[in-house]
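User: Here's a chain of 492 residues. Predict its fold as tokens.
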Amino acid sequence: MAAYTVHSVIRCSIKMLMKDIVMTPGKFLRVSVRCTAEIADVCASAKPVVHYDCLVQCGSLRNDAQQRHVLQQLSQLQHALKNYNNSIYMNPPPPRLDSKDDKSQHQKDTAPCITTEKKDGDLAVKEEPTSPPAAPPIGFYIYGDVGTGKTMLMDLFYSYVENVHKKRVHFNGFMVDIHKRIHRSKQSLPKRRLGKMFTCDPISLVAMELSKETCLLCFDEFQVTDVADAMILKQLFEMLFKTGVVVVATSNRPPEDLYKNGLQRDTFLPFIEVLKEHCHTVCLDTDIDYRRLDVAAAGRLCYLTEEPGADALMDALFEELALRQKSVVGPRVLTVLGRDVMLGKTCGSIADCTFDDLCGRPLGASDYLEMSRLFDTVFIRHVPVLTRSLRDQARRFTTLIDNFYDNKVRVVLLAAAPLNQLFVHSGGEDERDRQLLDDLGLSGEAAQRLALFTAEEETLAFRRTVSRLMEMQTESYWTEGDCSHSKKDMNT
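Assistant: Prediction complete.
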């Protein structure tokens, strides 16, 4: 996340010679610079570290030695990726066919290069061994506590990578897309006939498909909580790395703690070694959550249920925003993956929902991504204190906020507690936990080692959610999120 002092419009003095700098987490870094030609040339140079220093001089960033050190390493990768192309790994030279007597030569890591030369007036074929292609650049896995600047560094790195096919995505959304592709790949297979056997590897096919689309994958919030994801990651990423895809990821966990205490984790452990082999592991832990340094300045965006007239205040804000919409207030049905999702109250790019509407139903990242595409402002009413007995709803809420944050959707909350008291991890166990333990045949001691019952993953995710909600209350976030002109009108 961006580690900078947040303002709707950052005003620097004439001496600083820079103005109007806005960071957009999860998207390109957008900078408007008014300065002398000399400073403009420096800040426009293809060096993220130079840009970082400009932002520090301007006062929009705090100087952080750890951040700068990590960015220096990312800058080296950015330089190595200039005009990088992974096509050579997609189409390797054909294997050399040797005689049995030359078996040892066949085992060498060389491939033939077929050339022609003129000999006595005739063309003769000459076979010359060539060296295998050099290994692709090593990526990065950057981990650290919430709000330490990981997303901001990713913004700078990503915005300066040029002339390569690149893709930036939240890891949760990436895995949703992967499962869709795998399903589509299986559906496209011919029907098996009696007596005819064939094998298919849809995971590798999907990885090859991705490798043709991009050679640089940047992931925000690399976190594995789903057993279905855990089971396919090794094979998927082995093929991605084999075909020359470079990965840069941010996470709150070190690689060794991914999917910690998860079901069937033994089968997941080989993926960690694959990840560490192809990505440098870098820790960014400044002991500062920069999101909390700024105060909310966009007006009241978080109301408490027990406050007198809280609902009426939210109604008034909705009506004020609705006046600027070229639409009427009414329900809207969203169609996501063939399913209908009903929202009871919308107006143009604004939606007014309850917590149960969004998190009490079995919705997921695909539904929230569709909402992010259509709405720039979402009201969420009656958010309860989230205990372990509301574990499913809490996970959906975390996914919801992650998607809204990445897409700069503005959120107005009516909650049962202040943001920093919204999640309660102690207590809350219910009969469902005990029944599930019995169904799995687990003792209490064995259950203690499962993240399903320790709520360890949820704790990390909730801390990130609270940190993001804090930033989403700021004036700069609210101003940046006012993008109704880019959202589809509800009546179209």
